[in-house]
């Protein structure tokens, strides 16, 4: 029996684990992918206190290493379901079942897809959601980035140092990204802005070769030749495994009170998986600390 079981090893989950472990509790943390969450696939972080600039994977590894050094047990499995029993929880994975007195959900979000013709044909064959993972595959080639937020523009900057040319495709004229990031991108000579435009189709044989675009104002079509495309068009919450608990809103994000506790007693949640307005690394770590401290109070 664990005192605290945490689902998700991104910044929120790792912070929660650190606080729980430092209170001499038996803590397990589930992660079916690479620990670190979205930070692992972020090329550069420039807004986390203590670091003027740090590579995302390096920041993620530092958080993970600190957590493991405190004796937290990493459980490398995907959680399929959480069941509430009388005074504890049962967490079911593909292979095993685990019991815990308190559970903290910190599964974050995953990248949305465009859901246009040809997309499914070229996943991992030209279409990617991680520039830092796959950018080196397109050295000296032309690629596209789709999106208008911080992630899209930050990864455009990263890719511009590797590839020959980046087409930055955005459905509007204005970007959601912070102005200083937009200004950095505008200074790059090998980035072409393709604004007021959406992707209508991905085209190719065995690998992606072309993208059909449509201008949303005049409906004019354009086909560009690219070897890769990186999509950054928003996130969806990773909460399918808690559908039976009724703790999410219509969009799938988890609802909590001021103590980060859901309507199920002793079931907490933190980080980007929550209903919230701001999703940043620093807000995720803050949520993780708060959720853990409130969970510790319940346990004591």
Write a structural description:
With 300 residues, the chain is α/β, with parallel strands linked by helices. It folds into two domains: 2-110 and 235-299, FAD/NAD(P)-binding domain (3-Layer(bba) Sandwich), CATH 3.50.50.60; 113-231, FAD/NAD(P)-binding domain (3-Layer(bba) Sandwich). Helix content is 22%, strand content 29%. The chain has six helices and 19 strands. Helix 1 (11-21) runs parallel beside helix 2, helix 1 runs parallel beside helix 6 and helix 4 (150-160) runs parallel beside helix 5 (179-186). It starts with a strand and ends with a helix.
The quaternary structure here is single chain
Computed Rg = 21 Å
Q: What is the level-2 CATH architecture name of the largest domain?
A: 3-Layer(bba) Sandwich
Largest sheet at a glance? 7 strands, mixed
Helix fraction, binned, reads 10-25%
CATH topology of the largest domain, by name, is: FAD/NAD(P)-binding domain
């Amino acid at each position: 029996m664990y005192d605290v079981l945490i689902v998700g090893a991104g910044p929120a989950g790792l912070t929660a684990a650190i606080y729980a472990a430092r209170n001499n509790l038996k803590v397990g943390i589930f992660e079916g992918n690479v620990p670190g969450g979205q930070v692992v696939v972020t090329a550069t972080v420039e807004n986390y206190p203590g670091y003027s600039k740090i590579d995302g994977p390096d920041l993620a590894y530092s958080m993970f290493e600190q957590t493991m050094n405190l004796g937290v047990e990493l459980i490398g499995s995907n959680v399929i379901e959480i069941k509430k029993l009388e005074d504890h929880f049962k967490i079911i994975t593909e292979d095993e079942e685990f019991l815990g007195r308190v559970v903290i959900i910190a599964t974050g979000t995953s990248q949305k897809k465009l859901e246009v013709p040809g997309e499914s044909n070229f996943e991992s064959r030209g279409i990617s959601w991680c520039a830092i993972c796959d950018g080196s595959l397109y050295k000296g080639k032309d690629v596209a980035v789709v999106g208008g937020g911080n992630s899209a523009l930050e990864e455009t900057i990263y890719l511009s140092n590797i590839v020959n040319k980046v087409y930055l495709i955005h459905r509007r004229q204005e970007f959601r990204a912070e102005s200083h990031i937009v200004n950095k991108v505008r200074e790059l000579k090998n980035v072409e802005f393709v604004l007021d435009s959406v992707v209508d189709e991905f085209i190719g044989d065995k690998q992606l070769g072309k993208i059909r675009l449509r201008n949303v104002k005049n409906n004019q079509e354009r086909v560009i030749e690219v070897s890769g495309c990186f999509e950054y068009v928003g996130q969806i919450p990773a909460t399918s495994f808690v559908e039976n608990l009724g703790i999410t809103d219509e969009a799938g994000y988890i609802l909590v009170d001021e103590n980060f506790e859901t309507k199920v007693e002793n079931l907490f949640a933190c980080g980007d998986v929550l209903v919230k307005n701001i999703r940043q690394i620093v807000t995720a770590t803050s949520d993780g600390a708060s959720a853990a401290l409130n969970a510790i109070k319940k346990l004591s």
